Every structure is written in C-alpha cells, then in structure tokens.
Amino acid sequence: MPSNPPLPPGRYGLPLIGESLAFAKDPAQFLLERFQRYGPVFKTSVLAMKLICFIGRKGFAFFHDPGNVRRHGANPGSVIQSLGGPISSHFLDGSAHRRRKRLTLKTFWPNALAEYTPRMEAITRRHLARWDAKGEVSGVEAFHRLALAIGANLILGTPVSEDAEELYEPLTRAARLLAEPPINLPGTAYHAALQANRAVSARVRRAVDQYLPGDSNALVGWLFATRFGGTKLGVDEIHAEATDNFFTIFNGMGSALALATLGLSSHPEVVDRARSELLAGRAEYLDRAMHEARRYFPMFSIPGFGIMVADREFQGYHVPKGWHVTAAIHATHRDPSIFHDADAFDTERFCPGGEATPLNTYVAHAGGTPDEYAHHCSAEPFADAMLVLVMRTILRTHTWELPLQDLTLDPKIVPFPQPRDGLRIRFRRI
Hints:
Layout lengths: L19 H6 L1 H12 L2 E6 L2 E6 L2 H7 L5 E2 L6 H6 L11 H12 L4 H25 L2 E2 H18 L11 H7 L14 H21 L8 H8 L1 E2 L2 E2 L2 H31 L2 H12 L4 H13 L9 E3 L3 E3 L2 E3 L4 E4 L1 H5 L46 H18 E4 L7 E2 L7 E2 L4 E6 L1
Parallel strand pairs: 2-10
Antiparallel strand pairs: 1-2, 3-7, 4-14, 5-6, 7-10, 8-9, 11-14, 12-13
C-alpha cells in the first residue's frame, strides 16, 4: 500500500450522532445520494461507528473477502435480533461460517424446493380467492399475510388451510427494531419491538423443539436432516436459521411481492407478455421481471456491517483496520457504470448475458458468490421460486387494477419502504 493514502471522501456529521438521523430517515436514499456525491467509496459516521461504504462490483467483492472483513461483533443488537440472533450464519466467520452455509444451502436445493412448492401454491390460491371476494385489499397487508401463512406452514407446521393470524401483529411490531432508537426501557417503541421479536423467536423455538420426522414443517425438517462431512446442525443452530428465515419470509417476501405488483402495474406490456408466456408453459420472462423489481425498488439497503481485519487500500483510499464497513445494495442497482438507464424498469437486463448477470451487479441478496465462502443469502433460490410462484398463480387466473391513491414509497415503513396508501388493489378474475 502506498505511504499515507487518504481516507475516502465523505463527512462525519454532527458530534456523537454523526449522520445517524439522515441514515435512519431513509437508508437507501442516504447511501444513494452520497454515492452520487462522492463516488463508489465514501466515509460517514452512523450508529456510533465510523463507517466506510462501498458501491459496485469491486466494492462488493472487497466487502465479501474474508481477508478484509469479519462479521463477528460488527452489527448492532437490533440487526442481530432481526436476523435470527447472534449464532445466525450472518454473524459467523471462517470455518464456522463455511460449515453452517454448507449445511443450510441444502435447505434450498431443488429437491427441497420441490417439497415446498405445492404447499405454497395451495396457500396462494386460497388467499387469492379471499382477495377476489373482498373486491379491494391493501396489497401491503395482503401480501404480508400470505407470506406469513407460507412461513408458518414451512417453519411452524401450521396447516395449509390455516394462517397463524395471531403472529401478524407481533411480526409487524418486531420489524420496528430496525427503525427505533435502541432504548430498551418499558414503554418505548424499541422495547415493544424487542418483546415482539422474542415472542416470535420463542414460537419458532417451540416448533423446533417439538419437531418429529415427518411433521409438516418441511423447512425445519430439512434443517434437521441435512448432513455434510459427518456433521449436522444442532438444535440451537436450527432455531437460529429457522427464526431468520421466518422473519425474512414475512418481511422480505411480503414486501417484494407488494413492490413487484406495483412495478408490474406501471408496465402493462410486461404483464401481458408474462401472462402470454405462462399460458405457453414458460416462466423465464416472469422470473426476469421479478428480478428487475428487486433491482428497481429499494429493499435491503445494506448486507449488514463488517469490521476491517487489516489495513487495506481500495481504489487509492485507505480503509483502516478496525473500522466498520458495508456495501450499498440500492446504490449499486442504480450505478450507471453497471446499468444503462438505471432509473428505468427493464426486464431485458436479466436476459442470458445481460448487464445484470455478472457477479456483484445484481446484489439484492447481499452479493458475493452463492456458495459457502461469502455471506450471500442462502435463501435466494427460495425467494426466486416463491415470487414467481405467487405471481404465476395470480396471472393465470386474475388481473388487477390500482385505484387512485398515493403510490410514493414511505421510508418510514420498515424494514422496506412501501406505498404510502398501502397499495390498494382490486383483483378480478379473467
């Protein structure tokens, strides 16, 4: 490393609080604006830590290199609790992380997905009939309730005909952990969110402790059954991974379905082509549309935080040992050096050989290699399958319209911005 390279450009903000208020108000927009101002690497100070943020293919590769970054001890308690607790694979490093990933990846192999698919399809058809009968629904709420029913079946063993409605409010409240000031005192919003998080986690733990081979909670069954090199997951590890997946299905898939529906509503030509190809037995175009929705809209802002394990240089700047680092997902998705006309909704980006296909261009699931070596989301194949399955089920039998409403995204809705008026939808059978 050259002698005395400078720190990346940027600012630290106010004493003590840094730029935390602006970051908390709208994380995706905060990072995008600073990328546009400073370029693909910049410094800031948020959540009481000095932070360097990376954008783009090279930045994500740097962030995922274990020779640069460790995850243990890098994330605030709100993030840890929201992602399954301290022994979740998100917060492991080295051989412990590789072992866990080797085991959990099997939970989303094609033979596992094949077991999940008929359950998800039956639940989706049941919810779609309900939406049709109501005439108009809040899309944000409806898709989150659908995601809850799917997660409850696969993880808690709730029957396909039931919905685990009692968990909707706790899950919704628990999502506020990522938005509230971390003041854990009775009466505070953070305390209420933490209590809700613990209640949901305890419900998952009960399902794990009571699991017997052949029970209906298939995802938990796969976690128990998976083996690699003579090792298997312990009960505490299964609880951590199942809890992480339950929160992610509810928050991530519920939000992604709502945003994908919003995106498709603005592009009827995409809907028409997807439906036409589905009727011909092809889902590749719909899959591209679901990927483009996750690229286009701000969902996860960052893939968590890490800590530098050594002094490094990145694009001529000093990245000091001990500093916190992260990478910006939405800013990378709007990087004009990667995506032509990045502010447009364009499914062709995901054609074979398209601009979104090289590693670390489309990073909705954290980037990095989809293997045991990177902190890439193990459940990406499940997310791909669930989004296509739900939208395929809708498009084959229904169309929809959005009545006049405010469709601007509200960053105060956590953990992902959603339309301010809840995305009111009127479904109609074709």
